[in-house]
Amino acid sequence: MKKWVFLFLLIPLFCFAQEGKRLKEVVEGFFQKSLPSKSWQLKGMKYVFDNRVGLYVVALKLKEGEEERPVLLYVSRKMDFIIVGKIYDPKTGEELSKTHYVNLMGEPPSLKKEIDLKSLTLRGPVLGQGEVVILMSNPNCPHCRELIPQLIKKVKEKPDFSLYYKGVFFGKDHTLEGLIECVRQKKPELFWDFLLQCYTLSQEKAIDWLSKRLGKGFVEGCKGEELSEALKRDDIEVKEKIRINGIPAVIFKGKVYEGTNAILQVLFGGKN
User: Fold this and answer.
1) pLDDT digits (tens, 9 = 90+) for 109-151
2) Domain membership flag for residue 131
3) Three-state SS for 211?
4) Any idea of the CA torsion for 267, 233, 30, 32, to the nearest 10 degrees?
5) 3-state DSSP call for residue 24?
6) What's the structural domain count of the chain?
7) Containing domain of residue 136, as a range?
8) Is residue 111 domain-resident?
């Protein structure tokens, strides 16, 4: 009888160990492909399968150079998808992610820090005139496409801010990022109008909009190392120097705010 009890205990423990090993491989593979820096290390990874959300909740500490920050990921049951972001209860609006992290790792240290604007590279053209706001975004990001048209419209209507734009790589297709940078350098007077089209229209229609105004020759000529290097510099500055966790994000009065609701709240008091 004791042998059978031992076997029944051994099998679940073995499966749990295999599960943890596979999960760690998936998470490490994700960071290898998504982090621009190669000098990083995962520390203290813990996980649990949450039946309520139907996902693995993975909490860890990511060390890059001398800095260490808490990270929370969600992984599908088959481990074929990773979700980076916050999860909420749709009935109550309660954020579940903070509880998930605290349950696994304890209270995270405060990540809020002052950003010295003088240490950043700010490139125009600038929209509005007032308090500096640095927008970090990408037209392929769904949440960014929800926020940026609102933001541009509000600043145009009431230009109390000096809005700067920093592009961040998102996904594999960088066509629009390249065209946005090209317009920034060669036709700055059209920059914010074209940016609005990129966040409002499909990629094909946004390119068509630009072609009708500047000609197909202009669009076809938007290539070269200078454009690529400018995009890389912005991306590296955002991810390695400012160290945001996700987009859309803004820097306002020296602090980083991430997510549509947080940005609208701090800039406009939450008014849509």
Assistant:
1) 444 467 888 888 899 899 999 999 999 999 998 889 999 999 9
2) yes
3) helix
4) -150
5) helix
6) 2
7) 117-268
8) no
